[in-house]
Design brief:
By secondary structure, the chain is an alpha/beta fold. 29% of the residues lie in helices and 23% in strands. The longest helix has 14 residues. The relative contact order is 0.16.
Length: 305
Amino acid sequence: MSASDPIRPQAIRPKPVRKAVFPVAGLGTRFLPATKAIPKEMLPIIDRPLIQYAVDEAREAGIEQLIFVTGRGKVALVEHFDMAYELETTMRERDKSLDALAPTRIQPGNLLTVRQQVPLGLGHAIWCARAIVGEEPFAVFLPDELMIGSPGCMKQMVEAYQEVGGNLISVLEVPEDEVSSYGVIAPGAQRGALTEVTGLVEKPARGEAPSNLIISGRYILQPEGMAVLDRQEKGAGGEIQLTDAMAQMIGRQPFHAVTFAGKRYDCGSKLGFVEATLALALEREDMAGDVRAMAQRLLASHPPR
């Protein structure tokens, strides 16, 4: 398919995406000491932990089964979505609403965990979930990438997937001077938010990038991707890279990118975490005015150095 050819819908409706993998085994070293005893995915943006935003996005997209690829010291991630009997009983006795806890309730059997025993990269973490994924297409969420939109990023992707099938990744446009920090797609045919992916380039030098569309932490992959990861081929940093496995699937199966209509916050960095907190606070009716006034007051009392 050339860049001038149209993107055609699949003749046969693809299998639904019912399962999602959440790689949450990382140590969170950039946020130490806060993450010494608390998983980085449990750090809150205002009053919801990062993992909750990702799970809510998955549910909105119709995902039924959530697969957490965890490591040592990650028990809090599962407990967050468990029933807190003592807490709920006390709140009822005090006539307090339980509405805030509703998003943390997951039906038994819909949250499963597997261990990534050795930190061998993102591709290896996804591979650890192979037995649960089975022969079904599956989504991947990187909770550090906070994606805010209406509808959510994965719902936008699922709607595109129902049309074209195959493999999809979420992308965002960035200024050309920023592409060297990200994985970038080589684009083919385009139609609206959909772009055919003809190649993937990891952190290209400025001026050598095939586009300014960067991969942004959401994926829909076919089960054949697990077979590629099963070869345990190591890439950059001596790790098993998901990008390398996806690159091998291009040309074998339909592969498209969906340009996300929304905002992305890199909550794997401290600056991005602060930005996300401020941005989401400014969108909330219950605190936007107070937060704006607070920010203006702090800016006035802290002139640039």
